[in-house]
Amino acid sequence: MSVPEKVTLVVLPSGQRGQVALGSNLLEAARQLGVELESICAGRQTCGKCQVIVESGAFAKHGITSAEGHLSPVGEAERACCREQGIEGRRLACAARILGDLVLSVPEESQARKQIVAKAATERVIEVDPAVRQVYVEVAPAGLEDGRSDWSRLRLALLEQWGLTDLEIDLTALRALQPALRQGRQALTVSLWHDRVVLRVQPGYAERVCGLAIDVGSTTVVVHLCDLRTGAVLSTQSAMNPQVRYGEDLMSRVSYAMTEPQGTERMHRAILRTLNELAASAAGAAGIELDDVLDVVLVGNPVMHHVLLGIDPVELGAAPFTLATSEALDLRASEAGLHLNPAARLHVLPCIAGHVGADHIAALLAEAPHMQDEVALLIDVGTNAELSLGGRQRMACASSPTGPAFEGAQITHGQRAAPGAIERVRIDRATLEPRWRVIGEQDWIGPGSPDELPASARASGICGSGIIEAVAEMFLAGVLTADGRFSEQAAARSKRVRQQPGGRVSEYVLVDAERSASGRPIVVTQNDVRAIQLAKGALYAGARLLMMALGVHQVDRILLAGAFGSYIDPLHAMVLGMIPDCDLTRVHAVGNAAGDGARIALLNVQQRREAIRLAGWVEHVQTATAADFQDEFVAAMALPHARDSFPHLQEHLPPDLGAPGERPRARRRQTQREESRQA
Amino acid sequence: MTEEKDITKIETQELIETMQDDLYDGLAEEVVAGVHELLRREMTPYDILTKALVGGMDVVGADFRDGVLFVPEVLMAAKAMKGGMEVLRPLLAETGAPQMGTMVIGTVKGDIHDIGKNLVAMMMEGAGFKVVNLGINNDAEAFLAAVREHNPSILGMSALLTTTMPYMGVVIKALKEAGLRKDLVVLVGGAPLNAAFAEEVEADSYCRDAAVAVETAKKLLAIKRG
Fold this sequence. Notes:
The complex is a heterodimer of chains A (679) and B (226). Chain A is an alpha/beta fold and 679 residues long. Among the domains of chain A are: 6-110, Beta-grasp domain (Ubiquitin-like (UB roll), Roll), CATH 3.10.20.30; 132-203, Ubiquitin-like (UB roll); 210-348, Domain of unknown function (DUF4445) (Nucleotidyltransferase, domain 5); 405-531, no CATH class. Helix content of chain A is 28%, strand content 22%. In chain B, 57% of the residues lie in helices and 10% in strands. Classes of the chains: A alpha/beta (679), B alpha/beta (226). Chains A and B meet through helix 5, helix 12, helix 17 and helix 18 of A and helix 1 and helix 4 of B.
């Protein structure tokens, strides 16, 4: 029997990928990768639920070229179904056979297990002092003897009744002025921006002015709709960043902008469409009109920031990573392409450097380490980690190229955090038997669980928090040595530790075939451990360089920001050596701090000034070119570290680990020579 | 395994194996001591280089390729190798020992990552090559100037970003226009690269890691030299 030829299949937005047989049915092939597509008609090409979109082009990151011609041609039944559903241009997975390498997007409605992006705004005390406020005035009526314009008389009324001077009026408000005066019988509610510009006039008494706080992350976009009078969050909406289809990580997107003539424009339009949709659904959920939205605060990392403003991000793709502007911006929301009240304003928080953007400034605003005497380390973990260290006296920030391993990429069975992904792992120190929990399921699965699991409890892969725990637990259980190698004794202790077929490379079987979604075992390989060592080494080295820059020897508290930060277990992160030693009770997940900071800046203009001050005050440390970076990076690859000690981990680390800095001598040489002699 | 041995008392073959173990374990002092002992026994510098040092680094390279060893261990081994080389280098020149060749290596313009590239440089030195390391952020002029000055047989380029890797194509084009490309083996590497990319920019080969770089360099030079 001949071995079927394999091709590569990558499925977005989950990022699941794998080798599938040439000629296989796409719906089945996707399932083999653990991608669950909705299907009601069970492959009869009638329900139109299993839609996919072929992403054409060369994907350097995956090393493949994807094209529509890599699926079998559209047949009659499929064409008819797509026409009926109004989804021409999409393909039905059940109808298509795979003829070559493919990158596919699964639209939200076709995902059998919808992505959860839950980011409820945390309740915290913010003094409400917004940029836009409403005032009620009564304007003197015009008369034959009074030749002044209505705008002159409104200005006079605002001076006399509110003490406001030097006012301007937005054209859209001017257009509405006379009808409003008539309708309100000379009584108006005026919305003012910074008490300087009239944005809106409404007849009579009105009481509603809203704003949007927007955090554009490279993966997730969050919009908070707030009442600017009360400060209340009326609705929070989030979605995947649609730019994911142009590149999963930031540099791929800059690459896309560089190589595609329309690249920046396409990504710009995609994100605006999403933002406008989120704004509309937030307004709908809150029962308000988009016309009531008069102010917006926007934050994002530098690449997102540039693309959202329609600025070509090409300069951010290479050293020296020069920003078009790092300053805070006051713009019209309509200029930027947001469909709100036509006079609505947009405030963009400042950036610090080419990799440390407005989102990080916003996170600082939200967590306010600069208001404390103690030394805090704020980390936003993603493909690129941004870190800030310090307190009231002095702060420094840096970015560190952690790569996508923490998001499950570059990991054999890695995937994004979605239902079915393993997010928690424990390994028995004696038997090396694992227990794990998958997203969307309450119960842990382990030795005592039934062999037959419901489909939703079958693991489809390992997400970022899962791989962190898996590697940390493997180390704690003695499967891994401090230098990240599989211990030679581990294979003798459990059959879960085995050699990869045909090689001398080890792996740990985390989930047996019968308990996984794909029917194949889920493993953690030596190379997976290496990928995590690189990622965590880069993160730790970044923190160390900041500590050295400030002359700090101990961190008092650690704040883990971002969606991912919320799911990292502090103990495991520290055992792995991702973060420096700290009292474990003082390591906290702070959720979407960037979104919270955007909301704070939306509700309080003092905080916008504070953001500008911070952007100039926080020192930026360039990690990659720092003289000590290589040395720190290399030392930080060991578990938890080659020389730094972790007093707060003392009771958790294996007792036979030895002191940091002590090198195991003559690690293997013997086995190597024995093997070669046997061979 | 490494209980204290009196290296003056053991057989030469055992000493070579011990030195290979010491290299593997990154024990620079022991490697240097071994080199001195072998010189005392009147082994030629070239034999010491190839049998004890390069032989030891071959094992390191193979284990690195297979994930058994990792960056910190390889750096330690390379440092130990360097210690031995410092003793041997002047003697090799004196005795007119055959040379493996010269490599010029650097990270391309716009890219400031250099750890992976440094690892390649050290492993190439470990394999007996003379390496000229240009560091980070090199434009085409810098590469061309170094090629003209050092007349290498191998040029290595590294990039860690999808946004900076296309610059390798610019350098290769400039080499061609200057008439320098034909005499060079051009190797490229870095996380976002692959073999298809190397082909596209007309490099001779993509190297996945430092161990593969050494193997590829040796192989392609052997073919080139017939």
